[in-house]
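Quick one - first record:
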Amino acid sequence: MNPALDSAAVSQETRDAVPMFFPVSIAKLIILSFCTLGLYQLFWFYKNWCLVRAREGVDIWPFWRTFFGIFFCYAMFTKVREQQSRLHDSPPLPAGALAVGWIVVNLLWRLPDPYWLICFSSVFFMVPVQSAASRINAAVAPAHDQNAKFTKLNWVAVVVGGAVFLLDLIGSFLPETGY
């Protein structure tokens, strides 16, 4: 393990620190992304831009950076990579390749049935980013809540959104009846 990320060597001041990026477990990120039909990814971007604004004191609008996510995802992925390099965490995050992959896969929603379902796999381009963000958060705020448990609202999203996703999936493979 990288000594910079060893929580035993971290001061009490660092233990009380706020995480640099939105903490969420990889499993929760993937499950909620699928069950909310991709809306959780927007929530992830929004929460991260809010943390960037608070931490850096920059005059940005997290809502608009989220709304125009295809234009700002590279900037967010780069923010994670920059913090990763400050902590000497390696290998460096391939922010450009991940951003291009995320954008391209998200744009595949226009494909015909059932190929448009590929767009839901865009979350897998966020997994390395969240993994790096989690390591950064563990280094700067070892005692932070890692957001791995599902809340009641998360479970509602899983049940309702999961049912909608399942119906979309089934409907995409059913033959057209011509009615």
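second record:
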Amino acid sequence: MEETLLSVALGLGLAAACGFRVFVPFLVLGTAVRVGYLDVSPGFAWVASDPALIAFAVATVLEIGAYYVPWLDNLLDTIATPTAIVAGILATASVVTDTTPLVRWSLAVLAGGAAASAVQVVTVAGRQLSSLATLGLGNALVATGEAIGAFAMAVLAILVPLFAVLLVIALFAIGIRWFFFRQPRATGRAAPVP
């Protein structure tokens, strides 16, 4: 049971990393499997194959680079959102072990998909705010933060899965608080006197 909970925590951390960048978590996961640090669910050993690692590395470089192009980054978000959800599901399913396929895929869809989509929604909102506030000039900083976040979350998920889940929960709480409970800015104008 403890191993199953750790694998679920690992899956949630990897799924959250998919919300930042789609291919980074798979590159980190494939590398961890390749060096023998991690085992994956049956049918997912391909993530450590030479073709998969090469594909993940090339896709990671292209994905990260594309987010530094001001108009392309917002366009990529329309593609990345559904892709991140699917990637989060696959990442979770790949590491949840010692369960039946029904439980594995149910957890992957419900928890992994939710974690990836929640992080992706926050990153899209952050990029839109940056685009509006800086006319796209600040998007490079956002892209750098997201790339670092993807690598850090994926590595944390593999090395310290429970800490990664706590971090995901904290990020969700911050995101929910920011989206739903923020106060509108005062405009500095006094209300008209009737």
